[in-house]
Amino acid sequence: MTWRLEITHKTRYQYQEPVYSSYNEVRMIPRSGGNQLLLSSLVNVSPRATLYTYRDYFGTAVTAFDFHRVHDHLEITAESHVEVRNYSGPSSEVSWDFIGSEAIQDDFAEHLMVTPYTTVSADQASEIRDLVRGQSTPIDGLNRAIEWITEHLSYQSGITSVQSSAADALAVGLGVCQDFSHATTAALRASGIPARYVSGYLFPGRDPIVGESSIGESHAWVEVWLGRWIGIDTSNAVERTDQRYVAVAKGRDYSDVPPFKGIYFGGQSSTPFVTVTITRRQ
Fold it and tell me: Any idea where the Transglutaminase-like domain is (predicted)?
């Protein structure tokens, strides 16, 4: 099944005092490739600025802009149309010998490395590795890793922060999609399975009415390489992502994919106001 989705993502900062200059970049344009095709995209900012778009190291579209005049707010609106089809999973089963071969481990070294966000304790890494590698195939190992994560983490907002690592979330047993994704990535990498962090959008319903808008959300999940990349979402107990998931950015962890980041000189800003609206057009 294929869906055509219209996505509007708005982020607004209101500054309590004047801001004199700022440098910013956003990752809000969906990717093309795999099971999705970007049909059109447009990013607008207020106050008006000259926008520059480039691809980062991991192939994500980045829109950069800066201000050198006094302003009291920043509003970013990204509109896109994307076609997403359901994903059937791997075409063939791969073996542990294949995943562990020198060529594969070298090719996917960046998606096997431990990062500050994907750190877990030595005891946890050993436990996970034994459980996952004890399965007969990498697919079975992946499913065991998913079970381990859902046994050790429950979804609850307000406990962790954007700076929290997998180890932080596992220590309290609670977290949000970012924490589930970091913990899942850590578990798979500890077992020698390449994994990468994905940020994007999640359509909230399974059977939306064409033309009816829904409040969507920015979301994070994981892609695992088992002969080809497979999407999984442990925060929603989804073993294979489908056409509800629209990928924007991919990388080693959250630090490679933030939707917005920047620096500015001036007054303190308020908490950002963020809305995501998704409409199925076909």
Answer: 169-236
**DSSP H helices in the chain:** 96-99, 102-107, 122-133, 138-152, 166-172, 177-190
Q: Is residue 137 part of a domain?
A: yes
One domain for residues 140 and 234: yes
Could you tell me the CATH number of the domain that includes residue 210? 3.10.620.30
**Does residue 91 lie in a domain region?**
no
Average pLDDT per 10 consecutive residues for the chain, totaling 282 residues: 93 90 95 94 95 96 95 94 79 84 96 96 93 94 95 95 96 97 97 97 85 89 94 93 95 96 83 91 86
Task: Return the closest-CA partner of residue 179 out of 169, 187, 189.
Answer: 169
Instruction: Name the 3-class secondary structure at 140.
Output: helix
Does the pTM exceed 0.70? yes
Output the six-digit token pair for 95: 């073996």
